[in-house]
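User: Working on a comparison across species. This one is Na(+)/H(+) antiporter NhaA from Nocardioides psychrotolerans. Can you predict its structure so I can line it up against the others?
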Amino acid sequence: MTTPPSPSGRTTSHRLFSRGTFLENSRVSEILRAETTGGLLLIIGATVAIVWANTPWADVYESIRDVRVGPESLHLDLSLGTWAADGLLAIFFFVAGLELKREFVAGDLRDPRRAAVPVAAAMGGMAAPALIFVLWNLGGDGGLRGWAIPTATDIAFAVAILAVISTHLPSGLRTFLLTLAVVDDLLAITIIAIFYTDELDLAFLALALVPIGLFGLLVQKRIHSGWLLVPLALVAWALVHESGVHATVAGVLLAFTVPVLRRDSDPDKPGLAEHLEHLVRPISAGFAVPVFAFFAAGVTVGGFSGLADSLRDPVALGIVCGLVVGKTVGIVGSTWLLATFTRADLDDELSWVDVTGMAMLAGIGFTVSLLIGELAFGQGSAREDHVKVGVLVGSLTAALLATIVLRARNRVYRRICELEERDEDSDGVPDVFQHDDSHPS
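Assistant: Here's the predicted structure for Na(+)/H(+) antiporter NhaA from Nocardioides psychrotolerans:
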């Protein structure tokens, strides 16, 4: 498969994970820096919860998590843990929806050839873990309800680990991880809406379309006053919550109404979607996700014997194998098949070892995996504790394996980054972005 001739008359072959434009590369780097900070806060919140839940003061942690607040007349007298899962994660999915829409409307992934790689990888990276989980739980004891738990990738956690590794990965590969995780989030929330909605109230769902429509009308007219948009978003969230669909779906629906492109078509200024993303991302990465992690990760393990008992549950084993093996096999396999059938080659800087390392890193499935586990088996159940153990063990194992692989490549890419920095002109744009005909800046 080849690209059309470049302006210089040369024909260039299609490359997987090739370098994006300079503006897109800079934007991805900015997002990853924000997600790194949020991921580190997420890890801190989860660690505090796990340690606290395994001390003599575990009952204090549980009592705080189970405190109910909110108006009972509106059926919103929820526990703090539920508020974190249903409310704060809606902010997370709003940002994910904005990012996804921008990538496919104005980002490098508006090119179908570029979009095909992360989309195929995300689908393969969800199908393989689900299949492995099902194979572990073909017993009829109710475990199959959790088939979607190992399908999700936690971008904040993964990027935080990537920052700790200090890997100088090429921008195309970092963009791949970011976009794969965003598509993964969208597929995960679709699964939640379809498969984990027990009772559906169509009247409330129809009513939710009113504030969502008004929100969309305002943002299409480029009205972005918080005094108008935030109340509409809260009403939409409450109505979706009342409809029986998981309330985080409201965040994605609201995000999809936000326009990406500017009316004056000025490429040097951000569109409304990017503007709102910059405003809301710090709240999502710095507060919403870490607080959810604090309330969701607290599980009483009970020492090594308790850990061993939890891992005897086929549900926990399915999660661990799905995250560690399924994610790697699914992502690498689907990418290899795409490359084979399109006759596309990896970018010259990369090898399949790099793709494998990133696929292992995508096996970190924390935030959404814990959310799906809670929806599948109920908050406070014994099996939910086994889910938490499986998610934690699987995510940590995937992170460890990815660290081993990517650290081995660290020195190579450090040299490449140093050479590119020497190649930078006075305009601040590396020459490779200016002279690469296939990716004009």
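For your comparison, note: Residues 15-51+68-196+246-435 form a domain with the Na+/H+ antiporter like fold fold (CATH 1.20.1530.10).

User: Helpful, thanks.
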